Amino acid sequence: MEIFLLLAFGVAVALAAFFLKPYLDWRYSCGKPLESQISRTSFQCAPGELVPAPWKAPEVALSVVVPAYNEEYRLPQMLDEALAYLESRGSDVASFTYEVIVVDDGSSDNTYAAALSSRDASLQHGEVRIIKLLTNRGKGFAVRTGMLAARGQLLLMADADGATSIRDLERLERALGPKDDSPHIAFGSRHHLREEALNKRAWYRNVLMVGFHFAVWLLVGGNVKDTQCGFKLFKANVGKQIFASLHLYRWAFDIEVLILGSIFGKGVAEVPVTWVEMPGSKLNLLTGAVTMLRDMALVQVLYALGIWQPSVL
């Protein structure tokens, strides 16, 4: 009987630890300066200067934040294409300046060196800045780090695999619009490719995809049909506020971005983008689905209890 009770207690503790892991990850970094999570940067930065003050005016037109974990092979091609496009825009429009911020999420390969090599390119209208985290903290944490360090009027999140063409940035820019009542956030979307994906993918991938979309609708609501596309654009004031408030540090962080956008009363536009499935994904479908469901449930509970609250800049 005692053995059974000990076993049941151990299982209960393990389940509680699993369910609360996002909260514990947040508590671990809560109150720590961002610099304490970083091992090195490719640029000189005095203590306290990595994150621009909220009142500081943007220094460039666009910041492109690229989270990268063990991406030494896919990252160079993505950066080559992105930099060629951004340089061409700078040549056409004199006022267009940019920065690309690669955040190496504690990679164990040569991702940092691969990103450094792109700095050798002759760039006239922008620069590449690289930040390496001490340990792997998750895609959400890497994006958060880059967004808080960004200096652009517009902040673009783009995946290191280059699955979405950088040229689709223009579609997202048009969706935001110049007016204050225009959407402040644009989610790149693959929803228009859904039927094609269902026909090509294995049945279990389709079951997981449809189940995940249903869970998002049930737990989060809203009209955004594709929350997970790694191509999103933010007006700087809203992007800074959202990522300063972010608590989920791994795959489901996009869901909290959507929740925070709703809390702040900022519209979200869903914009169809081109997308090509790239080999080498780091996401395990089964474990990823389970952890995402956990994170979506936990974020709702913690916001409802007032344990997690938006930050005020």
UniProtKB/TrEMBL annotation:
Membrane topology label: Single-pass membrane protein
Annotated metabolic or biological route of this protein: Protein modification; protein glycosylation
Gene3D superfamilies for this protein: Spore Coat Polysaccharide Biosynthesis Protein SpsA, Chain A
EC number(s) reported in the record: 2.4.1.117
InterPro entries xref list: DPG_synthase, Glyco_trans_2-like, Nucleotide-diphossugar_trans
Listed GO biological process terms: protein N-linked glycosylation
Identification of the protein by name: dolichyl-phosphate beta-glucosyltransferase
Taxonomic lineage: Eukaryota, Sar, Alveolata, Dinophyceae, Suessiales
